[in-house]
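Example 9 (inverse folding). The structure is encoded as follows.
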């Protein structure tokens, strides 16, 4: 199954606003295909002249179509298990930015562990294709050793250019399973804006540029990290857009594997006249810059320095933003706007300020008072650019090119803030690593956003939002335990689980334990220093908050294991007269052919009123609840959309 561009583009951002579906383009042939086992697009040693890079395949080499390239990549992954075994556990970057040249020069110190089952005789690392490797040293227990390496271009849509520059480092002695080694690497090059991976599959240029806006420039430097631009070394498998959801699964797995990795950054920025009003964010945190004059170069009038102390990464890839922006305070928000006159700035600030004032009390009611929770909102250069978020930073276009009326505009901003402010709440008071499992982080933000939609526009609007992601979830879920690969929510990393399914599970928890009890659990500070401990403490708190309600089925079937989705049906309806005049007793045969149990809403309606109740339908089970009703029964409705199913999520049967 291929994904249309309208599906691919929102997924390329870690966070995006809702987008309408559009027609799927015909995939274009993927250019510059290399034979990964033999001839490469180019290769060089550490002493080669980088000015003679060969950018086209050698004469006589064939250029494969997208389907052929997928087969090549699959074979290549089997032939090169090195990439599957390598795990970077620590990364320290000394980065020098030259925005006027769109360039960077980096010294990277990293620790790499062999997580495979066999010794490694060589190491492979990748950076963006517009960067090149300059030198490499392996710091083994026996001492530091400079390595003669080779490089090659490999196809991968995890970078906006559609290619990565890979270095192959032979080791003097094999790296045993579980052993680590340290590397000292130098690399440099330019990072211009590029959307090659999207235009190669037929995406219109404008839409592609608004999605892939990563670049180094004097006005705006935005580097979102692997999945958008590999501006730091990664050890990863090649992967392509259009291979079903493989690209996004690989990116999600990479983020989960990076969680807990030690990361630090020393940043140096050269700037020219008029470019010194700089603000920098690294992994969602603003870093303080110090400025000093530069006397050696007339074009460079100053040098800005900043650093990020060693921290443990969360679920974000390392990301960096350096911009010239003006700060405007707006309640819980810190808005970083492009330079403009006061009247134009006020037109932007007011809607965001109003939206923050509306949403903040709602979050306080659910997540507790967090006076130090501040969300930085950084303005993107173009109004159509795709939003991105990292920790307590939202990078988004603040101007509205659709010219919507004030109410509709604020409504859209409120939905974005309900999600992003949740992350700010969760990060409040934390220095670096948030040990929550991903579904308790990203899934909670999705849940709060859908709750806000319910508050503003009613329950059916929230259910339509959930339904928009149900089909993709149903496609991924196993038909029965063991029938196909699923993901227990407690350890899930793919967005279809950590966002879509997690949102549903929070709604189910809300229905079972109630708003007050669930809010109390969410307000409590998580206990534990790793995801497994935090998960255990969360489930214990839920059990205590349930106050006599049985929730073990929910924990067992929906969080601790992946048993797929339920599949409800109304097998029969049997109305009969009640004991009092005008009353009816309605017996309803209900069945669940799925392998996951669930508690679901049952509504029986007459011309006079409706009776709502909640019924528990076990996995592979049947029940026959009886409902007392005033007035002649007319309709039975099972599920209101808050419990995901493999097929329809609302079942209606008219009583003749």
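The amino acid assigned to each position is listed next.
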């Amino acid at each position: 199954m291929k994904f249309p561009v309208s599906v691919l583009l929102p997924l390329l951002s870690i966070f995006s606003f809702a987008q309408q579906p559009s027609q799927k383009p015909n995939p274009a042939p993927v250019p510059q295909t290399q034979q990964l086992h033999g001839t490469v697009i180019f290769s060089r040693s550490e002493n080669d002249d980088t000015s003679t890079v060969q950018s086209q395949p050698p004469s006589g080499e064939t250029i494969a179509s997208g389907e052929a390239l997928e087969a090549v990549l699959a074979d290549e992954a089997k032939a090169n298990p090195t990439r599957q075994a390598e795990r970077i556990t620590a990364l320290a970057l000394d980065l020098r930015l030259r925005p006027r040249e769109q360039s960077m020069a980096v010294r990277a110190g990293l620790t790499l562990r062999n997580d495979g089952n066999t010794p490694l005789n060589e190491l492979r690392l990748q950076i963006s294709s517009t960067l090149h490797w300059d030198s490499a040293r392996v710091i083994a227990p026996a001492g530091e050793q400079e390595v003669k390496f080779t490089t090659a271009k490999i196809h991968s849509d995890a970078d906006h250019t559609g290619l990565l520059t890979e270095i192959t480092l032979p080791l003097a002695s094999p790296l045993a399973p579980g052993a680590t080694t340290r590397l000292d690497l130098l690399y440099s090059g330019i990072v211009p804006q590029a959307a090659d991976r999207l235009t190669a599959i037929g995406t219109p240029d404008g839409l592609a540029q608004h999605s892939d806006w990563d670049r180094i420039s004097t006005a705006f430097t935005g580097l979102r990290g692997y999945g958008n631009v590999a501006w730091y070394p990664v050890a990863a498998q090649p992967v392509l857009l259009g291979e079903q959801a493989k690209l996004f699964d690989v990116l999600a797995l990479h983020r989960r594997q990076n969680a807990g990795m030690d990361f630090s950054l020393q940043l140096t920025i050269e700037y020219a006249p008029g470019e010194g009003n700089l603000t920098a964010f690294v992994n969602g945190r603003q870093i303080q810059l110090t400025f000093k004059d530069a006397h050696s170069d007339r074009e460079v009038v100053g040098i800005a320095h900043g650093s990020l102390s060693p921290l443990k990464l969360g679920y974000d890839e390392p990301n960096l933003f350096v911009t010239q922006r003006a700060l405007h305070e707006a309640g819980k928000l810190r808005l970083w706007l492009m330079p403009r006159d006061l009247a134009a700035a006020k037109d932007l600030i007011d809607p965001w300020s109003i939206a923050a004032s509306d949403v903040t009390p709602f979050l306080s009611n659910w997540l507790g008072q967090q006076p130090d929770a501040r969300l930085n909102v950084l303005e993107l250069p173009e109004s159509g650019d795709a939003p991105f978020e990292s920790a307590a930073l939202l990078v988004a276009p603040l101007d509205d090119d659709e010219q919507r009326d004030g109410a509709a505009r604020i409504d859209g901003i409120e939905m974005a803030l309900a999600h992003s402010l949740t992350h700010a709440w969760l990060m409040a008071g934390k220095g670096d690593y948030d040990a929550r499992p991903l579904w308790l982080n990203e899934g909670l933000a999705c849940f709060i956003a859908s709750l806000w939609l319910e508050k503003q526009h009613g329950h059916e609007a929230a259910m339509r939002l959930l339904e928009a992601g149900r089909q993709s979830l149903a496609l991924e879920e196993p038909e029965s335990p063991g029938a196909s690969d699923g993901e227990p929510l407690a350890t899930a990393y793919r967005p279809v689980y950590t966002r879509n399914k997690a949102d549903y599970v929070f709604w189910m928890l809300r229905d079972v334990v109630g708003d007050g009890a669930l809010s109390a659990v969410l307000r409590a500070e998580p206990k534990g220093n790793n995801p497994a401990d935090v998960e255990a403490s969360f489930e214990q708190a839920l059990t205590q908050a349930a106050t006599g309600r049985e929730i073990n089925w929910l924990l067992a079937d929906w969080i601790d294991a992946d048993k797929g989705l339920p599949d409800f049906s109304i097998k029969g309806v049997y109305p009969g007269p009640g004991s009092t005049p005008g009353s009816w007793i309605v017996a309803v045969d209900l069945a669940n052919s799925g392998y996951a149990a669930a508690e679901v809403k049952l509504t029986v309606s007459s011309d006079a009123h409706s009776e709502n109740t909640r019924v528990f339908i076990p996995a592979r089970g049947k029940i026959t609840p009886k409902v007392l009703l005033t007035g002649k029964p007319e309709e039975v409705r099972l599920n209101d959309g808050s419990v995901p199913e493999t097929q329809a999520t609302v079942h209606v049967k008219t009583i003749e």
